[in-house]
Amino acid sequence: MDPASPTAVTMVPALRFWLVAWYAILVLGILGLTGAVLSGRQFGWRNRNEVLRGLGTVFAAAGMLLLLEGLWPDAAQAALAFGVLCFGGALLLERRRGARPAAAVPHLRLERSEPGAPRGVPEPVRSAPPR
């Protein structure tokens, strides 16, 4: 194999470590994507940004593994590019939707109304007094 060719495998320091790390990231990405898809099916796909993050993780890890193994460099670069696009799409979806952490946990208020109270400390919502 010609060392100048783009498919030539180059020496990567601690290659075994990086392979194990990227396989672990791939497994975590698959688990996250599975959870996001199952939750999306249940709740009407309101979590599209989570699905895109899972896809981005899977494609980025697959692209890095292909590059580290020296297989299909064009496919590896395409997978990495698609992963970056997925992460960018997730970021845009989140910004457009806006962060609403209180909507996720309706029984907690995120700010106390008393003056001088610490902000961001959850406080249970009190129910109306009995009649």
Residue stretches low in confidence (pLDDT < 50, at least 5 long) are: none
Q: Beta fraction of the residues?
A: 5-15%
Radius of gyration: 22 Å
Structural class: mainly alpha
Label this structure with key terms.
two-stranded antiparallel ribbon; 131 residues; 2 strands; mainly alpha
Task: Write a short abstract of this structure.
With 131 residues, the chain is mainly α. Helix content is 60%, strand content 8%. The termini are far apart.
Task: Please describe what this structure looks like.
By secondary structure, the protein is mostly helical. Helix content is 60%, strand content 8%. It has 4 helices and 2 strands, in the order ααααββ. It has helices spanning 15-42, 48-69, 73-97, 101-104; strands at residues 108-111, 119-124. It has a two-stranded antiparallel sheet. The model has no long low-confidence stretch (mean pLDDT 78).
